[in-house]
Amino acid sequence: MKISKDQIYNTNQKKITQHHARFDFLANELDASGLQVNELVDKLVAFQVAIPSWALGAGGTRFGRFSYQGEPSSLEQKIEDIGLLHQLTQTAGAVSLHIPWDIPEDTLAIKEKALENRIVFDAVNSNTFQDQKNQAFSYKFGSLCNTNKAVREQAIAHNKEVIKIGNDLGSKSLTVWLADGANFPGQNNFQTALSHTEDSLKEIYKYLPEDWKLFIEYKPYEPNFYSTVIQDWGTSFMLANACGPKAYTLVDLGHHLPNTNIEQIVATLMLKGKLGGFHFNDSKYGDDDVTVGSIKPYSLFLIFNELVYGIENNKQNPYPAWMIDASHNTKDPLEDLMQSLEAIQIAYAKALLVDQTKLKAAQQEHDVVACQEILHAAYNTDVRPLVAQARINAGGAVTPIETYRNLQIRQSLIDIRGKNSVASGL
Amino acid sequence: MKISKDQIYNTNQKKITQHHARFDFLANELDASGLQVNELVDKLVAFQVAIPSWALGAGGTRFGRFSYQGEPSSLEQKIEDIGLLHQLTQTAGAVSLHIPWDIPEDTLAIKEKALENRIVFDAVNSNTFQDQKNQAFSYKFGSLCNTNKAVREQAIAHNKEVIKIGNDLGSKSLTVWLADGANFPGQNNFQTALSHTEDSLKEIYKYLPEDWKLFIEYKPYEPNFYSTVIQDWGTSFMLANACGPKAYTLVDLGHHLPNTNIEQIVATLMLKGKLGGFHFNDSKYGDDDVTVGSIKPYSLFLIFNELVYGIENNKQNPYPAWMIDASHNTKDPLEDLMQSLEAIQIAYAKALLVDQTKLKAAQQEHDVVACQEILHAAYNTDVRPLVAQARINAGGAVTPIETYRNLQIRQSLIDIRGKNSVASGL
Amino acid sequence: MKISKDQIYNTNQKKITQHHARFDFLANELDASGLQVNELVDKLVAFQVAIPSWALGAGGTRFGRFSYQGEPSSLEQKIEDIGLLHQLTQTAGAVSLHIPWDIPEDTLAIKEKALENRIVFDAVNSNTFQDQKNQAFSYKFGSLCNTNKAVREQAIAHNKEVIKIGNDLGSKSLTVWLADGANFPGQNNFQTALSHTEDSLKEIYKYLPEDWKLFIEYKPYEPNFYSTVIQDWGTSFMLANACGPKAYTLVDLGHHLPNTNIEQIVATLMLKGKLGGFHFNDSKYGDDDVTVGSIKPYSLFLIFNELVYGIENNKQNPYPAWMIDASHNTKDPLEDLMQSLEAIQIAYAKALLVDQTKLKAAQQEHDVVACQEILHAAYNTDVRPLVAQARINAGGAVTPIETYRNLQIRQSLIDIRGKNSVASGL
Amino acid sequence: MKISKDQIYNTNQKKITQHHARFDFLANELDASGLQVNELVDKLVAFQVAIPSWALGAGGTRFGRFSYQGEPSSLEQKIEDIGLLHQLTQTAGAVSLHIPWDIPEDTLAIKEKALENRIVFDAVNSNTFQDQKNQAFSYKFGSLCNTNKAVREQAIAHNKEVIKIGNDLGSKSLTVWLADGANFPGQNNFQTALSHTEDSLKEIYKYLPEDWKLFIEYKPYEPNFYSTVIQDWGTSFMLANACGPKAYTLVDLGHHLPNTNIEQIVATLMLKGKLGGFHFNDSKYGDDDVTVGSIKPYSLFLIFNELVYGIENNKQNPYPAWMIDASHNTKDPLEDLMQSLEAIQIAYAKALLVDQTKLKAAQQEHDVVACQEILHAAYNTDVRPLVAQARINAGGAVTPIETYRNLQIRQSLIDIRGKNSVASGL
């Protein structure tokens, strides 16, 4: 299903006068402080976040899963869902495929479907943390790190296959997340596991097309509860350096130990030209994968502050790949994703307001109070009118969730797909 | 299947001379320091830990599950597995049922089967964290805390049903673990959720037979990632007090925030007469549910030090119910449980060695160095001969895992049950 | 020194037109959504936070301290500093004394000085975590929990003395923070330490004047690194209940283990009528005591959301005592406190905007997306004009820090007090 | 003061028969399992740990300090204290100087004093986290990272001075611990701070004598509570690589976020040839700096397991420098250090017992249960007789703390130095 431009336009009309009043007031204020409001809005329009193919269904925990009705049960339907999101928000113009959950049966048809929905193919993701039916070897004791060479070779071959699929679709990068690790002390030899992983990644890297990038994810724990081979950014960075210039570190916000200063990691990676990709979500305890901005919005702002600074100043770093990686245990997945997209845009907009010149001067003078005031001046600003204006400029909805509800889209999806459809994924 | 006494006896013979030498040496040492070795061994013999009915199969994480071959696919087979464990270790003489995963179809037959395996029925566990087929209302948004009265009533009725089943089997306590909570700020009104939970628990309490106990578990997070209604021992203790004298707090080692001093919680609860039950497992990050003693054996010792002290000194506290609550993602579940049982016995034995008189004197004099020396003297002692002796006295194996492997028990289970049998549980 | 009303008025004039434009725009918006703007502003005017007497000087860590120039070196000067803060912010109308750092030599003169500065005396704080010169017994191994009765009696007597001093000044509450605990396993008997503490607190409670309250603080660690006698709210709550109706729990934001859900603790305590006091600060790692709102402003908002709800709905709970308890290691202490006060007012103002009726309805319907939207609608609002209006109404500065800098107050303090004056405190 | 060999010999006599019985029994057991007991004991004899010059006095927290009587008040007395430790334990044959707390006034005399006590000079430590009297620039806002070039130059010059002092004494390495960081978001530009730090370290590196090493320490927080420039091993490793082959990472056990897998970091660094030094202590919450082995002795064993493996297999890695870095807030510093030394030797001895051949085979076969059994077989062994035998072989005491107490050494130190002597340090 699709939403027509007229539907969005008509719904917007009820909100547009109020929106204009708010936007004009804010634009005046920003103007007066020397900001180019049009440029800000253009930057927000240009900021596009990929939706992973597994994020359109309900998520779950090890204690079970509560299904959501009207879930997409095919890759086509997933792309349609992202198309809906993109129509409403104009911020979700890409899909990130997960293989083997979403192997296209008909590549051309899928490309067509994506084009129709104005969706491009972002990074493809391999999966060596689960066993698939008819798989020769099990990944129970690791994949790229396995002591058994045959298992490593199977995992390498799978990654090559994923590259091939991605290449056919127009993707330009491979994201490797390894669950490899150990549940118990002694289970793995740390050095052997790391060396095997490095060698395996190099094999995959060799196969990478010239214009592709390899993103190496890190995570301290889960699903292994004693150790993970790529436990932190330092390990990922070391492996990316060992692979070569097309290999990068990927930061997932939920993949850190308690209290980690993530924004500092972001700054370090961009300084060294090695921040390749970024997975958005939020968390209070571990890799909770809850809606972006729902728990620690100020941290998200501080991270965007580093991203904005790095994009501006670190030409050695490529423009990062953005993706939402959240799990929708409690909410309608589409509404949840709209809340995440809004939170990302808000954090980005606030970061764009930071007066970098004044901040630099205050840092130079060690005027710590002023440094904080400068950040808070940006953060305390209500930027929702900017974000809405960017959506309007691009043809999206003033208030996406309200529009989604008014148009009764979930009900239409249920009518089409039924109550018991199940999306592939976790 | 069963192991004959002869099989155990014969396997023991190969080890018995070496064991005696070790035991005699240790017994002499302990004797010389004024300890009654026979009493120590008797206490170890008497210490029995319940095995939950869901612990006989492989566990999993939200990222999937790797099956183990020969899993028990019925309650009868689960009791048989516990019977095997108990024959080998003589420490696992009880089962803790989980309803509705393990509702006995024929109560008499199950009681017979248990008697045959010398297994008693410990606490029964209710489940209101998952939806069962044909359930009228969903627990997606909570059970005993739900804003919808009908959901609360359904959950209360389920708990009553569990009591009834347990009563028929000879259980004397109900363990309530509530996943109730919220994934997002604002989702729940904390006060309403807590009040509903208190009222619901009181309803269940009313239904409790005269000689039963109610154990109220607490947990800070998972499967809810923003808040949990019974988030800590303080909340559980408050609710237990509100219910009445038959209600107690249950401590699960994995249900705490990072760095919590669990042994202090144990001491406080025993002082106040409110420690009802205890779930053993180990963890490095969260509720990892790995083998007892595999990560922090010294913490386990410190906890046992408080338990031993409390059992000796706090007559206001009932003898606690012990259970292993671990997940077997990587190991053969039966071997994993034997490692857990051994770790528990070792920690208990070491705690029994602590010279309480000297410790008290050192504490009184603020001789902190001596306090540590006294604990370390106990902890550094190699108590494995004591634990083995206790097993031998009770008819178990000198080396349970070795015996299990030599007797090729897993292979026999696979032969009987097949490679693809699946145990009910997580 | 003092700031004249004219000085504030004149400085305000440069900002007032801009402020009015902002306030009017916001007031219109809030009006349209059914809020009583005047009532909101009045509530902000009424919200007063105590400044502790030790917060006017530079703070330090165990690695040292970098002094700040112009620190107050007497209680009189400390009250003057709070007077300055109050003139500028109109939010700091109380002082919380710490004994023995700030024993008034001339009670009448001090009361006069406070009156002059429109400062009242909030809770008084005892100190049994440090040894004072000529003290008979050391608190090295604990105070109210000490195994030595003479030490406990000394500590009880000190608390009585603090009550007496507070009573003379007009205070109505005593805050007890105990560092008591252990650095090593075995050092303390948990049960003995807790029982002694309970008995000692009861002794102090007995001495409490009729219209006084006793606030019992909790903290998981530091300065003791293995255990703390009152380690969490549960312990404090239990002790407060044991003492009687005038005893309450005091929550300090920095006194929690990583990831604790503090707002839930607040809600629970208010439901049970036992939240007595509140210490504001912020932290990323432990009890960092940094500026309020500088690290986790959304958490602060969520906490205020519970406070606002509780003040409105929990008549069983007294109006809590508010205090800032931060350490000023890097910033001018007065500027730091102004940033804290602003952050508190912002969080309070946003919490007042939450549409409680809609929220309740969304909670009832399990519309989790709507629950989040309602909180975010309040949180994303830029409430700075409300907070500034409240200050203006009360005679304070539109922009307190800017005014403080324009009036060169720190320089005046240095001129009067010198560069090397040192405030008593940590 | 000094202990005579006769004193130790005579005290040992009372214990020696019992010791021999224990040692012989253990040696037989180990022999039977194929271990070379003499080699084990020789390795323990050879293992020497440096004592930092600041560890001979009482430590403190930001809440104060409780002095210990008889503290050494000069560098000579500190070396004497280490001499006493070394005589008793034969494990403390080195001192690590901290500049400027312990600048030798007469280098030759100090060298003489050290020689006399059989103490060598290990790594020297610079201090740019505190301001010294008459220092031109303050380190309040950082040293090697400071935005002010003059501050950076002062800090570089100080490090050069420390190298010079160390060189005169015979040290061969410099340890740089930087407190540099920020208390608030925005205070520092992460990229600038990191770049300045890298440049400054390179300047110091250039000055390093040919046969010296540079150890770069990392720490996530404290004394800065928002960010630290060298926050983790990844940053330290990156900087060490940037400096050159003589630069290494130094691991301090307390300098990690909660739940960090430290043993994996150790393994990674040794694989890459970059583990230079090691600071021993223990902790439950943060950088608690409590006695080694007092909180998590099993973690210490797992770390030693990696160290033993790396020393054996990673010829690319130099033999690491060992030091105890603990704080003595509650215990007699000398007794505390003896407990730490014992804990280190116990962990090392147990790690030496791990059957590496069997472990490798079990890892290869993914026999996780066996992997754990192999580690536990080593860990559960009571190795105290081995450690005592090593001490006896080297001329030390069978039971150092008991001997220290019997000889009333603390009393003698008080008699010589007085009750109120204060050691320089934190």
CATH class of chain A: Alpha Beta
The whole-number mean of residue pLDDT values of chain A reads 97
For the largest interface in this structure, which chains are involved and how many residues does each contribute?
A-D, 56 and 56 residues
The CATH topology of chain A is given as: TIM Barrel
CATH architecture field of chain A: Alpha-Beta Barrel
Oligomer state equals: homotetramer
Question: Which ranges of chain A are low-confidence, i.e. pLDDT below 50, for 5 or more consecutive residues?
Answer: none
The H-and-E topology of chain A, N to C, reads as: HHEEEHEHEEHEEHEEHEHEHEHHHHHH
Short overview:
Chain A has 426 residues and is of the alpha/beta class.
Write the layout of secondary structure elements.
The structure is a homotetramer of 426-residue chains.
Chain A: H1 5-32, H2 37-46, E1 50-52, E2 60-61, E3 64-65, H3 75-89, E4 94-96, H4 107-116, E5 120-121, E6 124-125, H5 149-169, E7 173-176, E8 181-182, H6 190-207, E9 213-217, E10 227-228, H7 233-243, E11 247-252, H8 262-271, E12 275-280, H9 297-313, E13 321-324, H10 333-353, H11 356-364, H12 368-379, H13 384-394, H14 400-406, H15 409-417
Parallel strand pairs in A: 1-4, 4-5, 6-7, 7-9, 9-11, 11-12, 12-13
Antiparallel strand pairs in A: 2-3, 8-10
Helix pairs in contact in A: 1-13, 2-13, 3-10, 5-6, 8-9, 9-10, 10-12, 11-12
